[in-house]
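In this notebook, the sequence line spells out the residues, with the fold written below as integer tokens. This is how one looks.
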Amino acid sequence: MNKVYFDNNATTPIVPEVFEAMIPFLKENFGNPSSTHTLGRIARNAIEEAREKVAFLIGADPTEIILCSGGSEANNMALKGASWTKPADGKWKAITSTIEHSSILKSAEFLPLNGYKHQTVSVDLDGVIMLEELKAALDEKTLIVSVMHSNNETGTIQPIKEAATMARGQGILFHTDAVQSAGKVSLDVDELDVDLLSISAHKLHGPKGVGALYVRKGTEIEPLLSGGGHERGKRSGTENVAGIVGFGKACELAVADLAKSAGYIASLRDELEKRIFTTIPHAILNGHMERRLPNTLNVSFEGTEGEMLQIQCDLNGISVSTGSACSSGSREPSHVLLEMGVSPGLMNSSIRFSFSKLNTMGEVDIVMDMLPGIIQNLRDSSPTWGNNAPVPPMDI
């Protein structure tokens, strides 16, 4: 059976160059980077070289990069760490969009339990944040705004520069979760006008368990972890040297082929999209048609159930997702599609296809050889399909 992996927003495979770069630090160069002997210095130098590569990917200075365990920790560090710089007197607030990653939303839920306020800003039918609503929410007691750069389920890219400039113009910190964007589209922290930005290695062909938080010079945050004062006192804990080296190599590779790979990946997505909407009736695109990542396609297939569709795809060797991998196993509807106003039926029939530079047009062919039949079988077995007038197919 042919295997097709179209779930790269969940995680990406490590490419050979990254794996090879990591091996010495899993074997002979095993030193603790805090040690002053030769092995320790080798490890420390490797970390700092990797830090430079991570910084270069997003146009930052290496001293502005705090290395950590991944995007979720970076998001927690940004929202909680910034909040803790203000008194927990029930007056200071954080603002997020309603479609953030769970690591932001759960951190935001934590704040009101610990002396801070949390306010959300909604999105439109395409999943784009309502800037006027954000503007109205900003006040002198707003300490931080967090809006993701691109959505992990739909791929919709947010107007980060406009939102960040709006907030920073009032002296309010602005954070963006760029975990899904890094390595797929160009990112520059000065162009975006952000104070804090999160990225993760395993979304750009690096290893799992390592990521970074960009913290603009002069931005104050409190650490989540206390201990030996690693990462300039902002994130204690002995560093994951091999993971960090792999992260740096993945960032280096992403910079080198970003333009080429983005165009190639978009061609795969566009071809699959075109063939879906010309071959399979009653398919509906979720998210913005133009303002989106080059690799993400979220589609609802009316008359199917997303979980069964995913299972049938998997049985045929096709790996796709019903939404955020972090929410898999939960039967709760997608909070992203819910906030976009997608109807319950369409919400529960959605599938996300997400591509990487390792995918091929031949894999698109394999999917389209199987997908129409899978969907027709599910519709034929549905007790409700056909009882209501279906939504007409989209013109793409």
Remarks:
- The chain has two domains: 4-10+258-381, 16-254.
- The longest helix spans residues 241-279.
- Residues 154 and 179 are 14 Å apart (CA to CA).
